[in-house]
Specification:
The protein is mainly alpha-helical and about 400 residues long. The chain folds into two domains: about 230 residues, no CATH class; about 150 residues, no CATH class. It contains 17 helices and no strands.
Amino acid sequence: MMTEFFSQRLQQHQKHMMRYLRYVFNDHFALICTFLVGGLGLYYSELLKTLPQPFTLGGWIILLLWVSALSLGRLATLMKPADLIFLLAKESQMADYLKRALRYSMWLPLAVLFLIVGASMPLIVVSVAVPFAYFPVYVLMMWLLKISELTTQRLRLYQGTSEQVKRQRIIWFLAVLASISCSLWLSPWIGLLLAAAQFIGFVFLLKTPQQLLAWDEMIQQEQTRLHRIYRFINLFTDVPQITAQAQRRKYLDWTLNWVPKVHKNTYLYLYLRRLVRGGQYGGLYLRLTVIASLILSFVQESWISLIIGCLFIYLIGFQLIPLTNAFQYMVLTHLYPVQAKQSVDAMKKVLALLLFLTALIFAVIGCFTLATIAQWGLNAFGYFVFTGGFLKLYLPVRLKKMNP
């Protein structure tokens, strides 16, 4: 009965998520990912050609990367706050429910590990001279290790298991180190054998506790997991589950003082104030700028750096455009004696300020990463030209569609 209940809840959850994912995986996102992955892949391949063979440090990099990758992915119980009341009478049957939750939760990490191990294989070939044919063996080994980690997450959902969970996680971590190390420096088959042994121990020999469920802990973990998903989706579209909270941020008041307090700057002041004191758009701009800056700091090819910089400028501008309608549902803004055109003009000024600032940051980074002054000058010129083209060509069309 509880397995059927989980299936029904899973269908509702997937239907709910599909409403948002179509906004995430849109044409713009696909285009950006295509250029970004292609550029980074080419840079990665060129970097591997410069490494000495064997590259001893590469094995340790892979070890650290794979151990970190196993921490990705949480047990999806799909529990809701109301379950504390309505499902409490079914606690004796919750073991079957959690088994289904564990089976469902193991598939997304498989896809993630498939991509991470696939991206790591060229470095493995260079570092430890293991042929690419062992790729399926590595993926299966990592998946078995991840499933065991998910079982420890399920164990945490029961009362009085904190000490047992600590012991199990220590054993699991030692098994992870042994499996990955042996697969890299001895034989992939030995690593797979060790991973299979610990998988049998965790999944088949570790019995389900007889204690009561920690309902509050279980519901809180699920809410935290969903909140992380919603925060990612919120980068692309508004999510009702994410409520923006205004914060004082007195130390940033100077960014608003330069705006003259005159009638024509009403919306300019409102937009800047939302950016400074609201976490949604200001945080989005900051995160994307920092991520792009970190990526550009490691790219030394001028044309790859130019493409990545322009893609992030476009992404930042595209994601900030909805700020135009941030005050649409506030009654007072409709009572202001200002023309509707003023909000559009103010938005153009705000985006121009932010995007040219981003272009300047990217240009400064190019001073330290690019080999010649000519390359730096060409990239800086390209950043500013692309920003100008975005503001003059794309932005007016986009704003016209949003405000016909």
